[in-house]
Amino acid sequence: MSRFFRGGDDSSSESSSDEEELYSTSEEEEAENKEEQESSEDENDEDESSDDDDAGPKKTGLSRFLVDQDSSEEESEAEGATKVKSAKHKRFDELEATITIIQNGQKINDWGSIANEFDKLNRQVVKLQDGGKAPKAYIKCIAELEDFMNETLAKQKVTPKKLNATNARGLNAVKQRIKKNNKDYQPQIDAFRKDSDDFMESDEEEAPPPKATKVKFQDTFAPEEGAEDEDKGFARVDKRGKAIPFSPESIQKHLRSIVESRGRKNTDRGEQIKIMEELNKVAETPYLKIRVLQTLVSARFDLGSGTTTSMPLEHWKAAEKELAALLALLEANKDHVVIEGAEEWEDDDKTPVLGPDDKYIKVPGSVVSYIERLDDELTRSLQSIDPHTSEYIERLTDEASLYNIILQGLLYYETIRKDASLEIPQESLNRIIQRRLDHVYFKPAQVVNILEENSWKQVSTGVDSAITPRSVSGDAGQLIHTLCNYLFNNSEGIIRARAMLCQIYYLALHDEYYKSRDMMLTSHLQENIASFDVATQILYNRTLVQVGLCAFRRGLVYDAQNTLQDICGSGRQKELLAQGVMMQRYSQVTPEQERLEKQRQLPFHMHINLELLECVYLTCSMLLEIPLLAQIGSSPDIKKRVISKTYRRMLEYHERQIFTGPPENTRDHVMQASKALAAGEWKKATHFIHDIKIWELMPSADEIKAMLAKQIQEEGLRTYLFTYAPFYDTLAIETLSTMFELDSTKVSAVVSKMISHEELAAALDQVTKTVIFRKGVELSRLQSLALALSDKASALIETNERTLEVRTQGSANAFSRKDGRGGQRGGGQRGGRGGARAGGNTQRQAGGTQFTGGALGAAVRG
Length: 862
Known about the structure:
Its main location: cytoplasm. This protein is mostly helical and 862 residues long.
């Protein structure tokens, strides 16, 4: 009993406190054990009450503690057997708990918790629906909740009572959701409100929660035969957890909800596509199939909505097939048309039908927009793929299927435009023709013919095009001409300009230089190309380059150099042709500008070989600059002018090198050839030019090399005459013919031309076939000063014009000035080799981004 008395020492107090803690702990443990025992006994009682009817009667007294033999045998057979609730039983319990919370919230007017639990309730009921019917407890809850909400709103109108922010938000949320939610269960709600007791006690009550069963835990997780049956009660659900019944009657409702959710945050586009694929399977009428296919294609395009990401390949192919199916469906059902501006059908419960006065069922949409987007996604995909891999080649094969879609779309628009009552705009037809033209203008004729032949095989035999009949498909040139002429006559602005450029490009690609040059000059695009969009300016640059290459293949060196001067002389070939982004030194490029530049890049298969372009430009510059340098060196009083500053810089850099090894690249070959040509070694120069490997990429490379050899011979002759004229009194034509291996008639023609252009101070004796040179008269002091003053005045004028052009940013003044300068060159040089004294030729400005017709105009006037 000493522990009940306070001791004087610490040990007694400590021992007493320890004993008190021990007794209290033991009492708490006994209480917990007792509660667990009681709960387990209650659970056992419930389980025993829920057993099957074959269970024996309950045992009373001490006998209930005895182990039954049957139960002992079962436990010995299956160790680890336990009693658990099924998943469906647990779901019913969760549903009832949620309903209880909602009812409690109604009692205290807590709309914040009601709104949260209402969303939770809708997610739970999806898992318990059987055949589209919801549990009756759920029907009762939502019906009473709607009535309670209406009462609350009525009270708010009569006696306005300001709710707190949480309750106000919850009330608005329930108000927005419950009406749309209850619409799906309206028949059951009406039955409940008619007679709630009869509804709750009717025989159609859903199956009661299943009884708890014994689950046997096995050692291995082997699949059971009935495992697949467990998921029969599940259905596809949307983001809110509601079931999605797939039936023809519900298609329009699903489509409307999907269209309304497009562009919103946290929208699962992949799930929407799966839903629409299921809807496409159950669609029965042509109208529903058309609507589903339209929405499905649009949803797939949303996957590539980012500016830097391309559409996934499998979705692109699926969209292409679905678009082809849509066009086939429209062709089979002539009474259904997809046109822009049609009225949207508002009734989701019915589908439109033809009236007595109606000829068509009009579906709002734009086929040409789908085709353009599909084309843009293919281009974006090609931009993101490494062109030096097999993946690029495989992706490029999809262009044929896309071209088939474009042709079928064109045929569809031609068909519906025959009926004037539909009022199809001309612009739609122009856009799809332009897309077709964009896929063929840069291809050789053989490739275009094969593409057209394969595309027409996919079209029905009885269908033909009024714009491009089947007979035209075998002739690529006639096809391009037909498409371009149609756009010339029926379009304006950018589409018309692009059609002109496409035809010029195609003609230049197939060596029809004079036609392409005349079309370029008569189009006057060089005067207003700066006002067009960037894509059209890029096409203009590509066309200009192709015209220059065509002139080179035809042996027109001067025309080729003048045409290519603006592009190649700028040093920005990649940027101007949209074949790469060239970062300028000491300049900051914003991410937005960089992104736009990458979007403008052309796919690799549309590129023009820049190395070949540079080789052609430098070769032409060599053939023009070397004789000019020789002419200036032999006549110090001649005005120093420059044809190509780019070539001059390269030549000066090459001459400053102390040691020059064998040529390694294209520039080295051209520089070595220039040095040999200036020294009169035309054979060595020809050898250097022929060793350039890039010529093999041009068609008929042997003819190109033969043409270059001939040009080098002639320019070598001119260079020799300019260099050594001061050292000769007379020179026989036969001697020149032997030195340069040219026919004497050709030598006489070259010398006569030089004399007539006042490039050479000499006379040609026809009788003795000799060239008689005249010695130049030395200029007086006054004449030299006058020439120097003229040079400085010309330089000052040129500087002022450049300053004006910079300030006006290359406006119309720049075009008029450049055109005038081009005309002066043509008139003064008379074909490209006019003397310095003959007409005051101004110095040509270095190439830039503003292109003019001066070069081509000079060629025509010359």
